[in-house]
Design goal:
ten-stranded mixed beta sheet, 46 helices, alpha/beta
Length: 933
């Protein structure tokens, strides 16, 4: 319903607001307030005719003038008609009536949204000034004018009308209108080359027809007046129809087009060229009604398809025309997207507006990519990047258009790597139907020998989620290419990963391929067997037996051909407790017992290491409750020989671990004669070998159970009790105990009575160092280095087979110096001579501990060679160290040396004579020392 407003010169009794004889509102709908009228209608009503127009008014020849604009809020559409009379209610003066109709936003949208509806219907203004009795004394202003329905009017064909104007002129007007709609600064002035008395009516027909090629969003941006002159000072109107003589005067105000003279101002050739395609399209809509209706519907739907409507701008308007030209199908490919740059422009434009478009329109635009698959051309990187960016968020039908092109090109030699990377990155977003198609295409590419490793990785990620039909297609192609060496292992890994989850008929397809490949006895055969064993683990007993019988048939056939290699291949991993290996072992200890096959199985079953023998025995206890006599003997012989042959590669702890695991398995099994078998093996083979490796007990990295546990084991076995290794372990435990009790000399004596080879001595040394970590540092607290000297002698003996005093003295001297430095009085000044004397006394103090050590060794019950090397030989360790000490001594340390000599005389006269001889035979010894003797 349209609100009405009437404005003219009226008597004071009819003046609604001014209350005087003047122009004023004299009738309105009651919904219109004074504030609304002042804010929206007053400027429209202030019409001032020119002298020329006034002459026509006086002659009753000036036709009505129509205008349309939007209110200040941009919502209400205001349409007005100015009608003129030669004399007003006084009978003396000319006048005019402004009749306005106000439509709200919904009503105006409905009006402008009809594709054939006029912008302004002259029939909507049915009242004239004569319909109001202004001279009646009882007449008063009207505050409740009715709100009539706005009468719709439609226009048919535009073809004949458009042909009445020059095509270039019309395109200039179209250009001016769309630019004015997008700008708040530009107006359009149009001269129709019509006389003043017909201009307004012609202009109304012109604007009503012209605007039919523009969508509603553009119409709402266009205000107009059908006859404009310079006396109308308003900015309300975008399009202004002017008399011919005003054309040149308006040339600097905006776009000016004179249809009569076919000239224009403000419209430049370059501007027209830049939008030539769009102008041609819009102009074509005058003669192509069907396309016009489609375009208007497309644009209006795009503009209002989301919660946030697509606002109007020239860029958006031109972009949507560009997209529609692709969608409508009226134009050839070369007209819209003739090259790659145009395709990039199309995809880039589509990316901005795609969420505003219907799915079928989106599919139509994306089909520009078909050119690449049809022509087998690579998609340019810039376009491919755009596609990858939008693909995941596209509707399913649109993704199908893109993916079809990708899959078509994937079957060519063009950009396969990039296409596959695209598929891989977007696959998670695909529907089930699309995934089926993609997997089927990839399987064909795979079978063709392309991207095989990449496609296998792809299937490895997604195979479990695919349909059964797709799984069959994939498996079929993989199995057909299983002989391709470069991907053979990956195919088997794939089968291994998914075999437990495939349907039975696909599992059979895998087995049949294996049956076909195995008789070749090649690397593929060797790779198949472990996978086949794991496949059987997931089967029921009936299927396992059927597969095993099929495999036996292949083995027998291979033997008949004189080969026999297939059985050895089938024994790969026979100890891994999988059905295939287990069934072969049971068959060997049963039907094959005593023949060549049994020997073949036994060799593979036992393997080539101590661990493999242990695993074989553990498995055997479960598989064969009673070991047959013939098999029992051969198993014992073979296992014994094998364990002995590999024993050098294993240490004591390997055998202890072997024994524990075999016994644990034996206890948990139901074997009837396994205990007897292992008892014999343990007593005759394992224990003797353990006896040869008792020194491994001193390997601190391997011994986690301690020396005592190993000693207990050795003493519990008659064959180990009296062995030297057992005695060594017992003695070392005693040494540890003596040291912990502070009896270091006794520990040293015990240690030097142990018969040690050099290597085992080093191992014992490591054991003691681990046991006594930090114990040597006691001298740091007391300054007494004798215990350090004894411990040093122990390590030296173990590591070198003799006691090397030089190294022991050096380490003890370092500790003594550190102790003296830490305990030195504060702020003590010493001369160089004092420092030399002090250092000499320190060295002599350490030497005293070394002599004490030698005296202690002299009374120990140890090998004569040790004592001779230490102090009895002419060039003994003591001789060399004494001369070294005396060479650096000062005379102030002679008294300490003499004390050492006297101590030695009471303990060992031989050692005392060595100390005396060192003084007399050392040239660098101070003379003061010589006076002692």
């Amino acid at each position: 319903m349209a609100l009405q407003h009437f404005f003219s010169r009226v008597p004071a009794r009819m003046s609604m607001f001014r209350k005087c004889d003047s122009f004023d509102t004299f009738a309105k709908s009651k919904e219109l307030t004074k504030e609304y009228i002042n804010g929206n209608l007053t400027k429209i009503c202030e019409y001032k005719p020119t002298e020329e127009e006034l002459d026509f008014i006086l002659q009753d020849k000036l036709p009505p003038v129509y205008c349309a604009c939007f209110g200040r809020d941009g919502e209400d559409l205001i349409q007005s008609k100015f009608s003129f009379v030669s004399s007003d209610y006084t009978g003396e003066r000319p006048s005019w009536l402004c009749h306005s109709l106000i439509l709200n936003k919904n009503e105006s949208n409905l009006l402008y949204g009809r594709p054939d509806s006029v912008m302004l219907n002259r029939e909507a203004f049915r009242l004239s000034l004569g319909d109001f009795n202004l001279t009646d004394k009882t007449a008063r202003y009207i505050n409740d004018c009715p709100t009539p329905e706005y009468p719709a009017a439609e226009i048919g064909s535009l073809t004949a009308w458009a042909e009445g104007y020059d095509e270039l002129v019309m395109k200039k007007i179209i250009f001016a209108v769309m630019n004015a709609a997008a700008s708040n600064q530009k107006n359009v002035y149009i001269s129709l080359a019509k006389p003043l008395d017909t201009l307004s009516e012609e202009a109304l027909d012109f604007i009503n027809r012209l605007m039919l090629i523009f969508p509603g969003a553009v119409r709402r941006k266009i205000s107009f007046i059908t006859e404009y002159n310079d006396s109308i000072q308003t900015k309300n109107y975008k399009i202004r129809f002017i008399p011919g003589h005003l054309t040149d005067l308006c040339g600097n105000r905006g776009y000016v087009v004179d249809t009569g003279r076919k000239i224009s101002y403000g419209v430049y050739e370059d501007d027209l060229t830049a939008v030539k395609d769009e102008l041609d399209f819009l102009y074509s809509l005058f003669s192509d009604g069907k396309t016009r209706i489609s375009f208007l519907a497309f644009y209006d739907e795009a503009a209002s398809s989301r919660r946030e409507s697509l606002s109007f701008s020239l860029k958006i308007f031109l972009d949507l025309i560009y997209l529609f030209r692709r969608i409508c199908g009226k134009y050839g490919e070369n007209e819209i997207v003739p090259d790659d740059n145009a395709v990039l422009r199309m995809i880039t434009t589509y990316e901005k507006y795609r969420t505003y478009l219907k799915t079928e329109d989106r599919r139509s635009i994306l089909s520009v990519l078909d050119r690449y698959s049809e022509s087998r051309l690579a998609i340019p990187q810039t376009i491919f990047t755009r596609i990858g960016k939008i693909y995941v968020s596209e509707p399913e039908q649109c993704k199908k258009v893109i993916m079809t092109v990708v899959l078509d090109l994937l079957h060519t030699n063009i950009m396969r790597d990039k296409l596959f990377a695209f598929i891989d990155s977007t696959y998670e977003s695909e529907s089930a139907a699309s995934r089926d198609i993609i997997c089927e295409d990839l399987s064909r590419v795979f079978y063709g020998g392309f991207l095989q490793s990449d496609i296998l990785d792809f299937y490895g990620k997604h195979f479990g989620n695919e349909s059964e039909a797709v799984k069959e297609i994939i498996l079929e192609k993989l199995l057909m290419t299983i002989r391709t060496e470069t991907i053979q292992r990956k195919i088997l890994d794939f089968i291994d990963k998914y075999q437990a989850s495939v349907p039975p008929h696909l599992k059979q397809m895998i087995y049949h391929t294996f049956y076909e490949m195995l008789p070749e006895n090649d690397m593929l055969s060797k790779r198949i067997i472990p996978v086949m064993g794991r496949c059987m683990a997931a089967d029921d007993e009936e299927t396992k037996q059927r597969v095993f019988e099929s495999l036996l048939s292949l083995i027998y056939a291979d033997e008949e051909k004189g080969g026999g290699a297939l059985l050895e291949i089938c024994l790969s991993g026979v100890r891994n407790n999988l059905p295939l290996g287990n069934m072969l072992v049971k068959r060997a200890f049963g039907e094959w017992n005593g023949d060549a096959r049994f020997e073949t199985v036994l060799n593979s079953f036992l393997g080539g290491s101590l661990i493999s023998v242990g695993n074989a025995l553990k498995l055997l206890w479960d598989l064969v409750p009673v070991i047959p006599d013939g098999a029992y003997k051969r198993l014992y012989e073979k296992a014994s020989a094998l364990i002995v042959s590999v024993s050098q590669k294993n240490d004591l702890f390997d055998f202890l671990d072997f024994d524990k695991k075999v016994r644990d398995a034996l206890r948990e099994s139901g074997s009837q004669n396994g205990g007897r078998f292992y008892g014999e093996l343990y007593s005759s083979v394992i224990i003797p070998l353990v006896g040869t490796k008792l020194s491994d007990a001193f390997n601190t990295n391997r011994n986690k159970i301690g020396l005592q546990a190993i000693l207990d084991l050795a003493q519990s076995e008659e064959k180990l009790k009296e062995l030297p290794g057992t005695e060594v372990i017992k003695a070392v435990i005693m040494v540890v105990d003596l040291v912990n009790k502070g009896r270091h000399e006794a520990a040293l004596g015990t240690l030097m009575n142990i018969p040690l080879y050099m290597e085992s001595g080093k191992l014992v040394s490591e054991t003691l160092k681990t046991e006594f970590t930090g114990i040597e540092d006691a001298s740091n607290n007391t300054g007494d280095i004798y215990r350090d000297a004894v411990m040093g002698a122990m390590y030296s003996y173990l590591e070198n087979g003799k006691i090397l005093l030089g190294g022991i003295f050096g380490k003890c001297l370092e500790r003594k110096r550190a102790f003296d430095l830490y305990n030195k009085p504060v702020k003590t000044k010493s001369s160089a001579k004092d420092i030399q004397d002090e250092d000499s006394r320190t060295a002599m103090t350490v030497f005293a501990g070394i002599v004490r050590l030698c005296v202690a060794v002299g009374v120990m019950d140890c090998a004569k060679e040790v004592k001779d090397q230490l102090f009895a030989n002419p060039d003994s360790e003591l001789d060399k160290l004494a001369k070294r000490i005396l060479a650096g001594a000062t005379k102030k340390s002679k008294d300490l040396y003499f004390e050492i000599y006297n101590y030695a005389r009471h303990g060992s006269l031989r050692i005392a004579r060595k100390l005396e001889s060192a003084v007399m035979n050392t040239d660098d010894c101070p003379r003061a020392f010589k006076k002692l003797f």
